[in-house]
């Protein structure tokens, strides 16, 4: 069997700091690599940063740096975060490295020589935040991105196109023949129906800015950032400079890309088409996970509810944090990160089930046998049950990990841990200990417990490496758990007669939700990195005339239930303004005498045969809609600046 494995995370944009979302994918990849190693694989794990493109260029500029300076500041921040989260990647790639530039050149050349690139003009809409071209039929709310909701820009420039349409059938066939190519399987249908709508050729070059990899056959053009970024997966395993490595970790490995559902199409459509054109093998699994929200809301910098992994690991410890992320949500589904669910999880699974089991077991071993292993031979049906369950659990974990279902794998592991707890109740060692005649039986029971814990440590190691090591150490095993293999712990009686167990120390302290120190945000703190939606320039604002107007008359419009008709004074003249707010002002005449704000340079238009020469400003909240009132002392016609 092929025992090489290659797992990747997306390479993250360096426009902001890593957060719980990027941490999630990276932890998932780390868990997978560690798990595969325990299963005897030679696993290679890649993460890194996506440093080119308009989004990064613009962020750098806003912050007052050159793009290179900015990426040099940001890339180490990702490395630092991953170190704190116990991530042990094999390589960290930055797309500004020369090895990557060479790899991009190579793949572009291959695709070009294959006749799959032609010159044309791109004319349409572009979302800088997603770095993606948005076809007309997908635009939402007038001019916004269907994925992130941000405003789109018009792009009209000469561009080179990749003949993606040519690979439509080959890709569909591949997906059909490989049921696990896109995971979870539920995502597969979405991708297939998208492809079936017809693949468009893809613009793969830009020529109106400079932060990217130049294209040899297209002077003045740089590589479209996604074409550049996706290639990173090849670069890191020696596509351009190390054929031996490339053979090992690409051609002869199980290749798995982990990513969020936001970028499935790039990975399950564009990327395989690029590889088909370049004549390279396709990855084996493209696995998309869901989206994290925080305490029930979408995470955003402006709301200030972005979960910072550092504060979480300060509260719970890194292993508990890793465990909760992987356990709480089924991989593929969206999840909500809340303090309550994390605390509940830690208390029940870690402190109670696992921590207590270890504590009780070591306590009893010390009491009954002085903490030194004694083997015995008196078996019972409970021993058989435990042993059978263990074999089933290993199999179940392997099946779940194959379809990248971490929470299900953990459920299986916890079935075993809970069974060990139940085994204590069934065998009641404290009763056995009362009678010297049961000493041999007591030894068998206690050995099953320490043995079970020894095995459990290997199973939880990918998720909680430090705690797993602590469990081994408390069991008197000094070996580095990194080297542990599931195969070695399949059998029983792993701890031999005379083995000295260590001391029990609590690994997962119980948390109290009430008294948990949740660092309170300073309500007066100003967020300097606040992200503004649809930012405009002061010159944009200057175009809009907002003036104070006094309502002189207000009434209903015949035949139009929603409309109110106002006569307003703008200081030197009177205007008529219509507004669709009748529902909120059943007695409009009460508005007479109030001063409100109006946009006065909106093109006049007729509604229901009546002219409207402006727009009254209003605000809306859960209590309904209200006109924006101004102090009556302000003179009519005064401009809002
Ligand atoms: O897309 N919940 O980079 P990116 C879950 N550079 N996962 C989340 C998340 C959330 N709320 N927020 C982010 C890019 N993620 C490209 C990738 S790959 C060749 C190029 C995770 O910085 C998730 O993995 O926007 C998502 O796919 C990724 O961060 C997007 O990272």
Automatic annotation (TrEMBL):
Matching SUPFAM superfamilies: Anticodon-binding domain of a subclass of class I aminoacyl-tRNA synthetases, Nucleic acid-binding proteins, Nucleotidylyl transferase
GO biological process per UniProt: methionyl-tRNA aminoacylation
Short sequence motif named 'KMSKS' region, residue ranges: 298-302
Catalytic activity: tRNA(Met) + L-methionine + ATP = L-methionyl-tRNA(Met) + AMP + diphosphate
Assigned keywords, A-Z: Aminoacyl-tRNA synthetase, ATP-binding, Cytoplasm, Ligase, Metal-binding, Nucleotide-binding, Protein biosynthesis, RNA-binding, tRNA-binding, Zinc
GO cellular component annotations of the record: cytoplasm
A Pfam family hit: Anticodon_3
Record: residues binding Zn(2+): 127, 130, 145, 148
Domain TRNA-binding intervals: 540-641
Enzyme class (EC, first level): ligase
UniProt cofactor note: Binds 1 zinc ion per subunit.
Record PROSITE patterns: TRBD (PS50886)
Required co-factors: Zn(2+)
EC number of the protein: 6.1.1.10
CDD domains: Anticodon_Ia_Met (cd07957), MetRS_core (cd00814), tRNA_bind_EcMetRS_like (cd02800)
Domain of life assignment: Bacteria
Record's subcellular location: Cytoplasm
Motif ('HIGH' region): 12-22
Described function: Is required not only for elongation of protein synthesis but also for the initiation of all mRNA translation through initiator tRNA(fMet) aminoacylation.
Family recorded in the similarity comment: Belongs to the class-I aminoacyl-tRNA synthetase family. MetG type 2A subfamily.
Name under which the protein is recorded: Methionine--tRNA ligase
Gene: metG
